[in-house]
Design goal:
Length: 165
């Protein structure tokens, strides 16, 4: 099942298979069509609450398709708290792959569920915004919504969690 909803970032297409979300796509040219399943309606409601600043963690069944390494990276992304950022290298350490920042960046760019799996919270080691498969402007808006990026963050390897400064 598929739905195309309106968000502050434009049209978003959601795809559901076997009662789990498999894709979130930014689709500016896609016509809007309402969610027809309970899950797609709940995803629409949670995204609306997120964009309004009322929801900081999604509670939806996710089933992104990817390699074992990609899955490991995406699970790591889910551990980055709302309003915080990590560098690609810090995320590599978090998932037990020190020195794997390039591989992590590649997996990050293949994330089929951006926003829901918050790949926008990963920035370059020098503090610059880094890349984003859906465009830097969208990443900047997501980070601004969460109130981070300019405030930076630090990584505490003893607790394996990102912290906002």
């Amino acid at each position: 099942m598929t739905a195309c909803i309106l968000s502050p970032l434009g049209h978003i297409t959601l795809k559901e298979e076997n009662n789990a979300l498999t894709q979130l796509l930014f689709t500016p040219d896609q016509p809007l069509f309402l969610p027809t399943t309970l899950l797609l309606r709940e995803a629409e409601a949670q995204l609306a609450a997120y964009f309004q600043g009322r929801l900081h963690q999604f509670d939806l069944p996710l089933a992104p398709l990817g390699t074992a390494f990609q899955q490991k990276v995406w699970q790591g992304l889910l551990r980055i708290p709302y309003g915080s950022t990590l560098s690609y290298g810090e995320l590599a350490e978090l998932i037990g792959c020190p020195g794997g920042s390039r591989a992590v960046g590649g997996a990050n760019g293949k994330n089929p569920l951006p926003i829901l799996i918050p790949c926008h919270r990963v920035i370059a080691a020098d503090g610059s915004i880094g890349g984003y498969s859906s465009g830097i402007a969208i990443k900047e808006r997501l980070l601004a919504l969460e109130g981070d990026y300019l405030s930076s963050s630090f990584y505490d390897s003893s607790s394996c969690i990102a912290h906002k400064k």
